[in-house]
Structure to design on (227 residues):
């Protein structure tokens, strides 16, 4: 089925909010707790496997993203990017650093590290990869491997201004609280799309985290909340 494009996700009606679900406790949001949880599970079924359907004329491609958890004294923050508005895919959206797998990449971890360094200038010497989440299939035909990593503070970012408009951090505790998870439903010309959002109010503006980024974060939530 052809999937309708969503160009203004903020305007799509909210159908429900998951404030009835428990937040991940603080003890499960430490660097060592997350490392241990990822190491303990060799395989698991995510809540969201993909967007559902594909835009026409797209051949599936491998991709990888980094889920960079910055280690601050007050807790872990997630480092995210806002893509520039002129890109072909996911223009203007909030996303993890990452991109398409290239022939020279030795697996998804190599892709995620290379793309992160190219997009935001985060050196891999600051990055400690601790695991992966299940592959997520996007509506734009990317088969995305999310690579989870801990990031030491003290880094300096250099953004690729063609691809990245800005980089910012969000407290992981905020994102792992379903009271901030909103479900949306969009229908056009008989086709339907549903998506999740986690809007974050930063110091100067709101960041509308939605779509594949929000879905992969929800999968991380399910991993960390499962006993």
């Amino acid at each position: 089925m052809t999937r309708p494009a969503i160009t203004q996700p903020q305007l799509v009606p909210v159908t429900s909010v998951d404030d009835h679900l428990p937040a991940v406790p603080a003890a499960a949001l430490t660097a060592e707790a997350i490392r241990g949880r990822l190491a303990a599970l060799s395989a698991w079924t995510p809540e969201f496997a993909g967007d559902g359907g594909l835009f026409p004329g797209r051949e599936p491609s491998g991709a990888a993203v980094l889920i960079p958890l910055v280690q601050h004294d007050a807790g872990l923050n997630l480092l995210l990017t806002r893509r520039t508005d002129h890109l072909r895919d996911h223009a203007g959206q909030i996303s993890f650093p990452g991109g398409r797998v290239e022939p020279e990449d030795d697996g998804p971890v190599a892709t995620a590290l290379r793309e992160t360094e190219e997009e935001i200038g985060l050196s891999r010497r600051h990055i400690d990869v601790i695991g992966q989440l299940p592959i997520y299939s996007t509506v734009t035909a990317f088969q995305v491997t999310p690579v989870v990593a801990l990031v030491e503070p003290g880094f300096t970012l250099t953004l690729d201004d063609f691809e990245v408009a800005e980089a910012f951090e969000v407290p992981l505790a905020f994102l792992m609280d379903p009271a901030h998870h909103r479900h949306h439903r969009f229908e056009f010309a008989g086709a339907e799309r549903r998506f999740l959002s986690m809007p974050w109010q930063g110091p100067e503006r709101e960041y509308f985290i939605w779509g594949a980024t929000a879905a992969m974060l929800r999968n991380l939530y399910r991993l960390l909340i499962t006993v």
About this structure: The two ends are 37 Å apart (CA to CA).
